[in-house]
Amino acid sequence: MKIIEITNLTKVYSENGNEVVAVNNVNLDFEQGEFTAVVGPSGSGKTTFLNMVGGIDNPTEGQILVDKVNICSLKSSELIDFRMNNIGFVFQAYNLIPVLTAKENVEFIMFLQNKPKAERAKRSAELLNAVGLSDRMNSRPSKLSGGQQQRVAVARALASRPKFILADEPTANLDSKSAETLLDIMEKLNREENITFIFSTHDPRVVNKARRVITLVDGQVAKDERNN
Amino acid sequence: MLILAWRNLWRNKRRTLITAASVFFAVFFAILLRGFHAGTWSYLIDSVLHSYTGYIQVHTKDFWENKSFDYSMAADNPALEKIKGIKGVKGLIPRIESFSLASYGDKTKGVITVGIDPMIENNFSALDKKIVRGRYFHEKDTGIILSERLANFLKVKVNDSLVLLSQGYQGASANGVFRIIGIVKLPAPEFDNQMVYMPLSAAQEFYSMQSRLTSVIVDIDNPQKMDKITKHIAKSIDTKSFEVMTWEDMLVELYQQYVSDEGGGVIMLVLLYIIVGFGVFGTVLMMISERRHEYAIMIALGMQRSSLLKLVGTELFYICFIGVLFGTAFSLPIITYFHFHPLQISGNLADVYAAFGMEPLLPVAWRTDYIIQQAINVTGIVAIVLLYPIYSVYKLDLTKAIRR
Ligand SMILES: Nc1ncnc2c1ncn2[C@@H]1O[C@H](COP(=O)(O)OP(=O)(O)OP(=O)(O)O)[C@@H](O)[C@H]1O
Ligand SMILES: [Mg+2]
C-alpha cells in the first residue's frame, strides 16, 4: 500500500538574490513498511526533502500525498494537527524537551492528543521497554547519553502510532556503537511491527541496514536501489 | 502543560528570580507609595471637609453660584427625607451660609457666616475640639464663634460683642450684635480668615428666614462611595429644583491640587512600571531566543502555535504572579501597621500641619483598590510584553530553528 506519493517536488530557496534549488523535481512513492535511507553529499537536499515530506517546510512546486491527503494544501494549523496524528519525527540532536523526563517526553504527543493518563502511561512504558530504556523512565534528558536520548526520541515518534517516521541524520551525533544500537532498534521495530522509517544519513554502516537507498545529488534522485 | 511551564520556570533560576524580584519591588513600592499618598491626601481632605463643606452638599438649584437666600429651602422639605433613606448616608447636617460684614471698633471685614445645629454639626466636624479660647455652643446659645485669624484681625477677645451686617431673606435687613463665646482654629487659612459660626436658630432669626436652610451636608459612611451616593441622590430627587455637589465641585482649588499631586504620583508609578516592563521584556527575549530550537521541535511534533504561546504566557504569568504575591504580602503588614500607628511628623512639616490645625500625622490609607490596582498593572505589563512572544512564536521558522 502506498502511503506517500510525491510528484514534481521542488524547493527553491532564494537568499539575498541567489536562488538555490535544494530539491529538484523529485518523484517518489513510499510503501507501508519500507525501511529507507536517503543519502547524498552535504547540501544535496536530504534535510529539505524530509522536511517537506513531514510538512515542516512547504514546497515551491509539486505535491505530496500522505494516505491520499495532499498535505501541501492544508492550512498551517491543520498541518500541525496532521503531523501530530500521522507523522513521527526524530531529529538530529536535542530532540527532547529538557524539562520533561524520558517518560513524559514519550507521552508528549499523546498529551497533546488528550489521551487519558492510563493509556499514556501504558504506551510509554511499552515503548521505552522496546527501546531498552525501561530503567531510565524518570530521567531527564540531561542525565541520558546521546544514544539514549535518540532512543527516547524514537519511542516518542512511535507513541501516537504514526503512518511513518522521518529521521534526519538520527545517528550523526552518536558514536558508532550507539548508532548501531539505535539502527538495530529501528530495524527491529520495522521488521516486527511493520513501522515505516525514512531516514537520512552519511554513515555507510547505517546505509547498509536500509532495505531501500535513495541517493540525492544536487536535489535530484540519482539512484533509487532496493536490496534484499 | 502547567507542569511544563512550572518546570521551565526553574531552568534558569537566577533569571526567574531576578525578574520576579523586579516585579516584587515595583509592587512593593507602588503599594507603599500609594498607601502613604492616598493616606496623606484623604487625611488632609477629610480634615478640611469635616470642618467646612463635607463630601456632598445639597442646595436649592443655583445656590452655590449665587449664594443668595432666594435659593434657600424649607427645612422640612420631603426631598431631604428621601436623601436620608439612601444607603450609605449617615445623616444630614443643616446649615445656613451667607456673607456678612463684621465690625469691631474701627475694624471691618467681610466674613462667611454659617448657621449650624450645634449638636449635629459637632458630631460631624468636632468643632469643639478646635476651640482655642472660650467655649463651644450650648443647646440654646445665641453667641457666636469666630475663627482665630479673623479674631486676630478684628482684635477681638472672647466675650466681646461683634456687629454683623447683612441682608436677610426676601430683602429683610439683617443686623445684630453678637457676643463672642469662643474662638476656633480651622485647618485651611482661607477659612480661618473669615469664618463666623452661630447656632442655626440664631441665624434663622438674624436673616428672618424661619425654618429655612441654604445647604444640607450629606454625611456619608465611606468617602470612597461619594460618587456613587451622589449619583444616587441626584436620581432620587428633582434635579430641576435641587443641586447635588461634591467637594470636588465646591472646593475647586483643593481638588485641582489633589489632581495634580495625584498626577505626579501616577507618573512615578508609570516610570517604575516601565522599568519593570523592560526587565520582564528582556527576560522574555532571552527565554525565547534560547528556546527557539525546542519550540520548533514542539511545533513540529504537533503542538499548535497557540498552545505554545499559552505555555510561554503561563510561564511569564507565574513569574509575575510570584512577584505580585510577595510584593503584596510584604507590603500589607507595613501599610497595615502604619495605618493603625501613623507616623508622627516632626520638624518644619509638623509646624505646617499645626498651622492647619491638624495633628502632625502621616497616615496610610488601607484600601483594597490601590492594592488590586498593582496586580492589574502587572497583568497589563504581561499582556503588553506577551505581544513579543505572539509575534515570534507565529513567525518562528521551523526549518531554520530545527537546523540551528
Ligand atoms: N533556509 C535555507 N535558506 C537558503 N538555503 C537553504 C536553506 N536551507 C537549505 N538551503 C540550501 O539548500 C541546499 C540543500 O540543503 P539541505 O540542508 O537540504 O542539504 P542536506 O543534504 O541536508 O545537507 P547535510 O548533509 O549537510 O545536512 C543547500 O545548498 C543549502 O545551502
Ligand atoms: Mg541535512
A few lines on this structure:
Chain A is of the alpha/beta class and 228 residues long. Chain A has helices at residues 46-53, 76-86, 102-112, 117-130, 146-158, 176-193, 204-209; strands at residues 2-15, 18-31, 35-39, 61-66, 69-70, 87-90, 164-168, 197-200, 212-217, 220-226.
- Fraction of residues in H or I helices of chain B: 55-70%
Tell me the fraction of residues in β-strands of chain A, as a range.
25-35%
Count of distinct strands of chain B: 14
Strand arrangement, largest sheet of chain A? Answer: 6-7-8-3-9-10
User: Helical percent range of chain A?
Assistant: 25-40%
Secondary-structure class of chain A:
alpha/beta
Form type of chain B = elongated
Q: Can you characterise this structure?
A:
The complex is a heterodimer of chains A (228) and B (404). With 228 residues, chain A is α/β, with parallel strands linked by helices. Chain A has one domain (2-226): 3-Layer(aba) Sandwich (Rossmann fold), CATH 3.40.50. Chain A has helices at 46-53, 76-86, 102-112, 117-130, 146-158, 176-193, 204-209; strands at 2-15, 18-31, 35-39, 61-66, 69-70, 87-90, 164-168, 197-200, 212-217, 220-226. In chain A, the strands form two sheets. Chain A has a six-stranded mixed beta sheet with strand order 6-7-8-3-9-10, sandwiched between helices. Chain A is globular and about 50 Å long. The mean pLDDT of chain A is 91. With 404 residues, chain B is α+β, with helices and mostly antiparallel strands. Chain B has 17 helices and 14 strands. Chain B has helices spanning 2-9, 13-51, 63-66, 78-84, 118-125, 148-154, 189-192, 200-206, 226-236, 247-250, 252-290, 292-301, 305-340, 348-355, 368-385, 387-395, 398-403; strands at residues 56-60, 73-74, 89-104, 107-116, 131-134, 144-147, 161-167, 173-184, 195-199, 212-213, 215-220, 242-246, 343-344, 361-362. A six-stranded mixed β-barrel of chain B has the order 3-4-9-6-8-7, surrounded by four helices. In chain B, strands 2-10 form a two-stranded antiparallel ribbon. In chain B, strands 13-14 form a two-stranded antiparallel ribbon. In chain B, a hairpin with a 2-residue loop joins strand 3 (89-104) and strand 4. Chain A binds chain B through residues 47-48, 51, 54, 56-57, 77, 80-81, 83-85, 89, 91, 94-95, 97-100, 108-109, 111-113, 156, 160, and chain B through 1, 4, 7-8, 11, 293-294, 297-307, 398-399, 402-403. The site of magnesium ion has 3 residues of chain A, from helix 1.
